């Protein structure tokens, strides 16, 4: 029963992740930490949970990226620009994960999830910054509407590095930072930001997974259990993203983040 539950976690996490550009790791990591004792009889090391999450994110991001690509929603030029710094930073973050002790990891990850929930709430009330950028782009959506957006080289590289570092450290994919930055700072259309973010997550997760695997921070049975659901969920989320606003799901995700964040913070605080 527990392994079936883990497979369902893969579907739900990937569907949520690809729908809003998060990647799903922000659900998988706490799920492994909480469900681990029931599956293996002992607690799952936080570094192994992060490594496992990144390995599953490779599957999730590939599935959703292929679906988004068919709909021509991926800005590959922007994606490769972000990957220049997010790729190496994800390797660095992956190498640092094991240095965080159990309680410290739970506290820092819980606080991070709390901030992400707040950011997901705040972005409904924030408007994209109205300014011109050195590099300007235009995107025409399926309805024929033209959207103008742009970015500067230095801000783009900094955003890629910071997001990649957090991605490798916590195994969350980075979309929770990529999407708000792209929408609010660079004026990307939300669906384009989500799709492009998933492709960057795919590239960065490969490097982060390699580092965690090299350090022995991986639970391969968990990867095998989560991967099929991640593929299905990645396709499902990308399919739904083009057909719904996702507001109800976003609120469900916000509440989930708040509940899990609270649990991790309390447990981490008690273990100090």
Automatic annotation (TrEMBL):
InterPro entries: TM_pro_TauE-like, TSUP/Inactive_protease-like. The keyword Cell division does not apply. It is found in: Cell membrane; Membrane. Keywords: Cell membrane, Membrane, Transmembrane, Transmembrane helix. It comes from the Bacteria. Its main location: membrane. It is a multi-pass membrane protein. The chain crosses the membrane at residues 47-68, 80-97, 103-122, 157-186, 192-215, 222-242, 248-266. Pfam families: TauE. Belongs to the 4-toluene sulfonate uptake permease (TSUP) (TC 2.A.102) family. This is Probable membrane transporter protein. It comes from Paenibacillus thailandensis.
């Amino acid at each position: 029963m527990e392994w079936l539950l883990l497979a369902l976690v893969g579907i739900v996490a990937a569907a949520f992740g690809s729908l809003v550009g998060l990647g799903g790791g922000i659900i998988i990591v706490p799920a492994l930490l909480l469900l681990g004792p029931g599956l293996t009889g002992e607690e799952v090391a936080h570094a192994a949970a992060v490594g496992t999450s990144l390995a599953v994110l490779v599957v999730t991001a590939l599935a959703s990226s292929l679906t988004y690509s068919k709909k021509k929603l991926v800005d590959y030029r922007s994606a490769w620009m972000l990957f220049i710094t997010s790729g190496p930073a994800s390797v660095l973050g992956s190498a640092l994960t094991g240095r965080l002790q159990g309680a410290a990891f739970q506290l820092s990850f819980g606080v991070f999830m709390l901030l992400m929930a707040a950011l997901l709430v705040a972005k409904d009330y924030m408007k994209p910054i109205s300014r011109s950028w050195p590099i300007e782009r235009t995107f025409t959506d399926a309805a024929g509407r033209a959207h103008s957006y742009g970015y500067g080289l230095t801000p783009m590289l900094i955003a890629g590095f910071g997001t990649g570092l957090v991605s490798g450290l916590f195994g969350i994919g980075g979309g929770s930072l990529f999407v708000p930055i792209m929408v609010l700072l660079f004026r990307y259309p939300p669906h384009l930001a989500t799709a492009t973010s998933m492709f960057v997550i795919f590239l960065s997760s490969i490097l982060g997974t390699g580092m965690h695997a090299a350090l022995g921070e991986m639970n391969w049975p968990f990867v095998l259990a989560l991967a099929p659901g991640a593929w299905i969920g990645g396709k499902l989320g990308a399919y739904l993203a083009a057909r719904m606003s996702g507001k109800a799901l976003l609120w469900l995700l916000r509440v989930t983040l708040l509940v899990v964040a609270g649990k991790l913070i309390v447990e981490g605080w008690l273990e100090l």
